[in-house]
């Protein structure tokens, strides 16, 4: 039997993950009291031939019992049943926004602000995140991308890359992406906007790309940026970071930033230690 323990931050997508796993044929139970964990596993592992895949949702709602989960997991291991831990995560800013949008109360908030509840929850779940086999950061993830990731891990059994690098092109006139970890300004490059035949095109079009990259500074900048990112990512991984958002900005977010973001994506896309995705935030404005 394949047993998955789904845990993580409140608001990061645990319920969505369980629903997706259920659609994939997993027998799912959410918010199971931790003392019942060995009993449940015994029932489905040793006494039920029908259930071959199960997922259990466990999170901060278990209160103080969460700290006892280590002992119960040891009992499961001794029974011969292997398990995997899926930890759902998201940035603090994303979690706060989601709670404000849904107007739900964070389970750790009490009479304090949401950010205090999130901070305390992170502290209490830190040991589970360290034990996790898979960490999925949903800050920039669409639901279809979450489905794809879970399918790769739990259906196709493909190797999963915990570090996700997101390259975002944007226009400074519309503001810097609030979740960006690194921001680079490419407004020093020649602007295709002032070339009549290129004005209505974008950095996804070859003529614009050729115009921007024809500048010697563009190639030098791209090489230095790629080298720096390749240096930084392994060090971020060592520090436990699983999501990196790189913002590439120009004035309007249509030409230069899109071109450089695309080129950086091409440079990084072949990496095997982490996955890379790209987003052009302002290209249609």
TrEMBL record:
The keyword NAD does not apply. Keywords: ATP-binding, GTP-binding, Nucleotide-binding. Residues 163-283 form the RapZ C-terminal domain. SUPFAM superfamilies: P-loop containing nucleoside triphosphate hydrolases. Residues 1-157 form the RapZ-like N-terminal domain. ATP binds at residues 8-15. The keyword Magnesium does not apply. GO terms for molecular function: ATP binding; GTP binding. It comes from the Bacteria. PANTHER family: RNASE ADAPTER PROTEIN RAPZ. NCBIfam families: PRK05416.1 (NF003828). This is Uncharacterized protein.
């Amino acid at each position: 039997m394949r047993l998955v323990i789904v845990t993580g931050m409140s608001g990061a997508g645990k319920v969505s993950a369980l629903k997706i796993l259920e659609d994939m044929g997993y027998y799912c139970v959410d918010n199971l009291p931790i003392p019942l964990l060995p009993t449940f596993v015994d029932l489905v592992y040793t006494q039920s031939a029908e259930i071959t895949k199960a997922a259990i949702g466990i999170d901060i709602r278990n209160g103080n019992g969460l700290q006892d989960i280590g002992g119960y997991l040891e009992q499961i291991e001794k029974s011969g049943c292997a398990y995997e831990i899926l930890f759902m995560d998201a940035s603090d800013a994303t979690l706060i926004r989601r709670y404000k949008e849904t107007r739900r109360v964070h389970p750790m908030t009490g009479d304090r602000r949401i950010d205090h509840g999130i901070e305390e929850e992170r502290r209490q779940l830190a040991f589970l995140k360290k034990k996790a086999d898979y960490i999925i950061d949903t800050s920039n993830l669409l639901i279809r991308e979450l489905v794809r990731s879970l399918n790769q891990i739990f259906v196709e059994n493909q190797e999963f890359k915990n570090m996700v690098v997101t390259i975002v092109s944007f226009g400074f006139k519309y503001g810097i992406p609030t979740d960006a970890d690194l921001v680079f300004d490419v407004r020093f490059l020649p602007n295709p906007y002032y070339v009549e035949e290129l004005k209505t095109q974008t950095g996804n079009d070859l003529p614009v790309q050729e115009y921007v990259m024809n500048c010697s500074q563009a190639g030098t900048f791209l090489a230095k940026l790629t080298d720096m990112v390749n240096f930084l990512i392994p060090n971020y991984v060592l520090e436990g970071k699983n999501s990196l958002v790189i913002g590439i900005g120009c004035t309007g977010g249509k030409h230069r930033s899109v071109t450089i973001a695309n080129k950086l994506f091409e440079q990084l896309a072949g990496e095997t230690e982490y996955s890379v995705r790209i987003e052009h935030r302002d290209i249609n404005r």
